[in-house]
Amino acid sequence: MMRSARVAAAAVIVSGMTVLSAGCSSKPTVKPDGAAQSVVDVVSKQTGFHPNDVHCPDGVEAKVGQQFDCHFTGPEGKAYVANMKITKITGDNVEFDVNTHPSG
């Protein structure tokens, strides 16, 4: 179990995909549920730990370079943050780097 916690605490930088939402705004935004699923996929694949309470913000403008944070509970009940940075947008798909670490 300790090994899993150490792995999850390490920086994990990979690309994830999520879809855009146009909503009422003229500018497209990242869907929070899509971003959260990407965090789950990245953390699960890289560490074997499956977070089940990832929360990402609403209203994040979908533009390259935009950054935002998602939060989740990691191994042993510790709070973690996933720093998200949009690196590419293709159609309705957003690609970003994900860097997870304990919050605080």
From TrEMBL:
Domain DUF4333: 21-89
A Pfam family assignment: DUF4333
Membrane-spanning segments: none
Cleaved signal peptide residues: 1-22
Domain of life: Bacteria
InterPro entries attached to this UniProt entry: DUF4333
Record's keyword terms, sorted: Signal
PROSITE patterns xref list: PROKAR_LIPOPROTEIN (PS51257)
Keyword Signal carried by entry: yes
Full protein name: DUF4333 domain-containing protein
